[in-house]
Amino acid sequence: MTDCIFCKIINQEIPSYKVYEDDKVYAFLDITQVTKGHTLLVPKEHVTDIFEYEPTLAGEVFARVPKVARALEKAFPEMQGLNIINNNKELAYQSVFHSHIHLIPRYGESDDFSIHFGNNQAAYSSESMQEIAEKIMKQVEQ
Ligand code: 5GP
Ligand code: ZN
Predict the structure, then answer these.
(1) Among the listed ranges 1-5, 15-19, 51-55, 131-135, which one has the minimum average pLDDT value?
(2) Ligand 1 atom at minimum distance from 38 CA
């Protein structure tokens, strides 16, 4: 895609700090470095977000996540954890519309990454949980 910053990075039209590349994916340092080693893994094929992936491409991209994760762990033995994040659409914090997976190494509670998981368990009866699960299940592609 001509007007996509990540396509331009993949095509070497703009510079990046490359971490890994093969025929299917490109991985490079996120410019903001939320924590040291913060890496983006992207498919070379332009897909906007998770909703656009064909199964084959999804398999190719997600199969490479552990490879980059292990490289980070070996590169930074002081690493204590790793958050893997994939934002889809603006409300969910997607700001670059070429699908990408964030790998964010964690070094301690006071590193510069945080995430909030609310707990709304009390608001859902077992009946409503069952109803929600069935509603989703009906839509899963066979
Ligand atoms: P999103 O918010 O879409 O999940 O993540 C997009 C990420 O791309 C952000 O973390 C941002 O720092 C990163 N980013 C945006 N422009 C560039 C760029 O030109 N180079 C690099 N290396 N990262 C970028
Ligand atoms: Zn693109």
Answers:
(1) 1-5
(2) 10
Over residues 60-112, the pLDDT tens digits come to: 999 999 999 999 999 999 999 999 999 999 999 999 999 999 999 999 999 99
Q: Which residues neighbour 9 within 8 Å (Cβ) at sequence distance 6 or greater? A: 15, 16, 26, 28
Domains and CATH numbers, the chain: 5-141 (3.30.428.10)
- How close is the Cα of 19 to the center of ligand 1, in Å? 15
Catalytic pick among 38, 100, 102, 116: 100
**The model's pTM:** 0.97
Which residues face 103 on adjacent strands?
39, 84
Separation in Å, CA 2 to CA 53, 80, 136: 19, 39, 36
